Amino acid sequence: MSLLCVRFLHSLLVDQTDQPTNAPETEDFEDEQHLVARLVHLIQAESPDEQFLLLNNARKILGAGGKIRIKYTLAPIVFELYKLILRFVQLKDEENWEAKIRKMFMCAMGTIGALITTAEMSELPLKLYLEGAMVADKVPLSDSASIVYEFISKAMSVFEDELSESRERLNALSLITGTMLEIGNLPSENWLTLVGQIVIAASAKMFKKADQTQTMCTVVSLYWKGQTAESNGPVRNGEKVVEVLKKATKIASQCLEPIVQQQLFIKIIDTLLYYYEDNCLEITEDMLVELLSRTKDNAVQLDVSAEADALEKHLAMTLQHIKRFKEKRPELAERLQL
C-alpha cells in the first residue's frame, strides 16, 4: 500500500515538464520533500523479506528524483534499512540469513554513495556511514568486522576528500572518534590502522595549532578507552596516550599568543590528570610538574583581562583537585609541592 502511495505521488518525486524553473528553490518544495521523507517511515510489510523489497523499490523510485530531491528522501531509506538489519538479527535461523543481511548493508552503502556522487553531500553521508558501522558492529555476521571497517573507511574517505572547511573537519573527527569508541569487534590490526589515521588527521597542518591540540586531547581517548576484538575490554595503551599528549604539548608550545598557549597547557594538564588518575602508569609526575611550571611562567606574561582571570581560576581549581587527590596518590602532591 505504501509503495502504491509512492507511485501515486509521482509529481512530488520527479521533475515535471510543466513545473516552474525555480520550483526546487521554494519553501513549498522543501516542505513537500520533507513529507515524502516521512512517508518512507510508514512503509511496513508483514515479513522482513517483504520489507526489504519495499524499501529497495522505494529507494529506486526516490533515487530517480534527482540531486535536489534525494537530499531529503534517501536518508530515511538508509535509517529504515538499519532498523530492518537489527530486526533481522533475531531471525538467525532463517535460510540465507547472512546473505540477506549483506544485501541490506550493500543497499544502504549504495544509497549513501548516491548522496555523495549525485546529491554532492558530505556531512550527512559521513554520519550515515558511521551509523552503519555501529549497526554492523552489533550484527553477528561471520565477516561483520570487515563491514564495520568498510563503513569507517568510507567515512574517513568523505572526511579526506569531501570536507574542505576546518570546522567541518573538526566536527567530523569528533563524530568519527565517538563512533570508534562505540564499536568493539574490529581486529587489532584494522583498529590500529583506523586510529592511526584519525590521530594523524587530528594534527593536520590545515588546522590552527589550538585546534590541533584540542582535537588531539580528544582523540587520545581511543588509545585508552577503545576496544578491539582481542582486547577483552579497553585497550589501555598508556605508551600511545603519552606519545599523543607529548605531541599535543609540542604543538601547543609553538603557539605565539601567550593566552592561547596558556589555555592549551591547562587543557593538556587536565587531560594528563584524567589518565593519571585512571592509572595510566606511563604518565609520570615529571610531565605534570613540567607543564605546571610552564603555566606559572606563562601566567606572569599575561596581560590583565577577564580571560586571563578565568584561566587563573581554572588552574587554581585544577591544583585544588590535585590536593584532594593526594590521599590516593600522595607522591604526586608531594612532587607538586601541594
Features:
mainly alpha; about 350 residues; about 70% helix; transport; single chain; protein transport; membrane; Vps35; Vps35_C
Helical percentage: over 70%
Major sheet characteristics? none
The number of distinct β-strands equals 0
Shape: elongated
Straight-line distance between termini: 73 Å
Q: On the 0-100 scale, what is the average pLDDT?
A: 90
The SSE order reads: HHHHHHHHHHHHHHHHH
Strand residues, percent: under 5%
Question: How do the strands and helices of this protein lay out in sequence?
Answer:
Elements: H1 2-8, H2 10-13, H3 27-40, H4 48-63, H5 66-88, H6 97-117, H7 123-137, H8 144-161, H9 166-182, H10 188-202, H11 209-219, H12 222-225, H13 238-253, H14 258-277, H15 285-301, H16 306-325, H17 330-335
Helix pairs in contact: 1-4, 3-5, 4-5, 4-6, 5-6, 5-7, 6-7, 7-8, 7-9, 8-9, 8-10, 9-10, 9-11, 10-11, 11-13, 11-14, 13-14, 14-15, 14-16
Short description:
This protein has 338 residues and is mostly helical.
What would you say this structure looks like, in words?
By secondary structure, this protein is mainly alpha-helical. It has a domain at 255-338. Helices cover 72% and strands 0% of the residues. It is elongated, with a radius of gyration of 25 Å.
